[in-house]
Design goal:
226 residues, alpha+beta, 5-stranded antiparallel β-sheet, two-stranded antiparallel sheet, 7 helices
Length: 226
Amino acid sequence: MSDWPSEHPRRPAPAAFHTAAYVTLAGADWLASADPCPESVHTRWASCPEAPSTLPCGTVFDVINAPALFGRDLVDRLWTAGPGSGPVATHRGRILLFAEPGTARRLPALLDWEEWSGSVPPLLCHGPGDAVTVPPLFPQRPPQPDPPHTPHSAQDLTASRWLVAPDVRHPWLPGPGALLWACIRAARRAATAAPDGPVATAARDSPDAPADPTATRTAPTLTPPL
């Protein structure tokens, strides 16, 4: 699998990362449609719009739940070199990436066939029978802005908020193929950047490696078949 085709209709401009700051009315209708009783969901939101909600997966969307660092790199791959993404949220230090129904079942099976799957951290794939907590419709505003250079509190790091909020009634959702593509590239990027990653290790153990430990050598670029 090569780089994402440039002619793909969903491919954004390089480094473009469009985010909706809050859930629109159309986006709220889409989220609520995942519940068997969407009217009750709207009632809860009307009474407490700044509270997280729990919604079932498997019919309107699946959710891929990834560790924060890998999840952000995964979303970055989708937006800078791939087809973009649908809604994305962060909750309790995890990234929740909304995907098309069926992805939770198919993505793990596809990853099992990939050479670089060992570099992909464990992903929680939520599908039929599962439910996820989604952030509030509107971002919670702090009582006052923090002064410059103030460290983030633990609550800030685990806050529940939208990175890409749903803003249309029928958002485009990535499927297992797009997420497999992004997972492998995020894993390769993390592995090659690590001091003891497979590429760095291959360069160090090569018979042509320089004897001087302070000498520098350009690591070969490995492009495994995808």
